[in-house]
Design brief:
With 115 residues, this protein is mainly alpha-helical. It is 79% helix and 0% strand. It is built from five helices and no strands. The protein is flat.
Amino acid sequence: MVTQDELAIEIAEGERPDRPIMRMLRAIRRRIERRPGLRRAYRVAVAVLGSLIATVGLLLVPLPGPGWLIVFLGLAILGTEFAWAKRVAAFAKRQLARFWAWWQARRAVRPVAGD
């Protein structure tokens, strides 16, 4: 069993800024930022990909499966470039947490079938 402290250490290790992958991603991002045309194309690509993934997730919400997870993934992708997407994701997470708490309370009060 992994403790919370071990998990926190593992997460911190993965997010270290001196990791080769992080250095590579920062270098790519700097190159994109220096070229206005490339930056515009990158933002359009992020917008298209994030919107497509979020839309597919919304279509999957009524079905069994990871619909909301896919929506949040799309919003996370959009949030890398657009502040409004970060705000929408935060709002959606709060609303989903409220709904989940309501649902759990409702199920706790409802009598079990067969009693």
